[in-house]
Amino acid sequence: MPRSPALVDGVSSNLPRRITFVSLGVVGSLLLYFLVSLVQVWNTGRDDSFLRSRRTVDAIVVLGAAQYDGRPSPQLRARLDHVVRLWNVPVAPLVVVTGGKQIGDRFTEAEASRDYLVSKGVPVEVIVIESRGTSTYQSLEAVRDEARLNQWNDVVLVSDPYHLKRAQLVASELGMAAEVSATRDGVVSGSSALRRNVREALGIMVGRITGFRQLESWLQ
Q1: Do 95 and 117 contact (CB within 8 A), yes or no?
Q2: Which of 6-10, 40-44, 59-63, 191-195 has the lowest mean pLDDT?
Q3: What is the CATH number of the domain that holds 115?
Q4: Which among 67, 68, 63, 117 has a CA at the least distance from the CA of 88?
Q5: Could you tell me the residue range of the domain that residue 172 belongs to?
Q6: Measuring CA to CA, which of 19, 94, 176, 203 is 20 to 30 A from 144?
Q7: Residue 111 and residue 117: Cα distance in Å, rounded?
Q8: Does residue 141 lie in a domain region?
Q9: What is the CB neighbour count within 10 angstroms for residue 106?
């Protein structure tokens, strides 16, 4: 039985409205997802419960940042200063320094980190160098392998506040039990910190859906 013209006209007139409602629903869901991710990035970077709890772990893992001919950049130095504070608590018997080097560099980020920590009183024999990775995922994957080899059950990750939620999620994807502890005197602040928090939230949104290994392959 053919549809009446009135029925066809009614469906046609409602279609744009339905499309609008669906579009608004999708946009609203994405916005909510982004806001939740942003709050998680922000809160993780400001959570000092690990230090307050005085818990102990098997190793402190500091994620690498730029170095200049063997000298840590201000950003990396702030991370390493926080490692020294954790070491002096103490929260772990070992420190793992991570990060490879860029083309033309003479030193890896891990080597620069080791030398700086030694200059601050951390014994060289307790420092483990992991310089195979050139990204957060690669560095934590290498740390995961080291942890399995040495039977480390848990670690604490040290980095800038904006970076720690993604690092924690990457560690979880790799099967690592990881606490986090953010530096409190980093050089990234103000509008620059806000932009990085936003960028991290967007990356986390995608990484949770695709997996962080896949996300990293797209960013290379």
Answers
A1: yes
A2: 6-10
A3: 3.40.50.620
A4: 117
A5: 49-219
A6: 203
A7: 10
A8: yes
A9: 10
Per-residue pLDDT, 59: 98
Q: Do the domain assignments include residue 173?
A: yes
Give the DSSP letter string of 66-116: -EETTEE-HHHHHHHHHHHHHHHTT--S-EEEE----TT-SS-HHHHHHHH
Answer whether residue 28 is part of any domain: no
Mean pLDDT of 135-156: 96
Residue 24, domain member (yes or no)? no
* Total domains present in the chain: 1
Task: Judge whether 139 and 130 are in contact, CB under 8 Å.
Answer: yes
**Cβ atoms within 10 A of the Cβ of 57, count?**
22
Residue 130 has phi, psi (to 5 degrees) of -130, 95
Positive or negative CA dihedral for 54, 57, 59, 64?
Answer: negative
Q: How many helices (H) and strands (E) does the chain have?
A: 8, 7
Tell me the residue type at 174: L
What local confidence, expressed as pLDDT, does residue 10 receive? 54
